[in-house]
Specification:
Distance between the termini: 29 Å
Number of strands: 10
CATH class of the largest domain: Alpha Beta
Structural class: alpha+beta
Radius of gyration: 17 Å
Largest sheet: 4 strands, mixed
Order of helices and strands: EHEEEHEHEEEEE
Shape: globular
CATH architecture of the largest domain: Roll
Length: 152
């Protein structure tokens, strides 16, 4: 049974918020990576970055947990079940992004390598251990606008 009075909702991901231990350090890291900070009047309460089609936000870990009504402890030391992606247009770009991220303070988790699906990928972690997959993958095009384009 459908409800004809229900508004048509379009699912979309508009923001990813990362809980961080030291917001000052994380702001410096993401600015060093080249993300454009917006709404700077928030100071160190929260930081917003324009990523193209969505936002990346940094928020103190304990405050984010409190806001979501989730326990702050124990903080995970292992894989969290989530990665962020930085799609590239070539293997050379993957290598360059990984080297650049490490020069900005990231930790290399997994060096770039050919994947079993015909791509090329490597991983780095930000100062709080949030994992980033840097990848070029068949069927995923990075346009001149630097946005990801998928075939229908």
């Amino acid at each position: 049974m459908t409800n004809n009075n229900r508004p048509k909702l379009v699912p979309r991901l508009t923001a990813v918020t990362l809980g961080v231990h030291d917001i000052r350090r994380s702001i410096a890291f993401y600015e060093a990576l080249g993300f454009a900070r917006k709404a700077k009047e928030t100071g160190e309460a929260i930081a917003f970055y324009d990523t193209g089609a969505s936002l990346l936000a940094l928020f103190p870990w304990d405050q984010l947990a409190d806001d979501a009504k989730l326990p702050d402890q124990p903080r995970p030391q292992a894989f969290r079940g989530t990665t962020m992606g930085w799609n590239c247009s070539s293997p050379e770009e993957v290598d360059a992004v990984l080297a650049f991220a490490v020069s900005c303070g990231a930790t290399l988790i997994k060096p770039a390598h050919k994947t079993e699906y015909g791509g090329y990928s490597g991983y780095f972690a930000d100062p709080d251990g949030h994992a980033w997959d840097v990848v070029v993958a068949p069927g995923i095009e990075v346009g001149d606008d630097r946005r990801v384009h998928l075939a229908d």
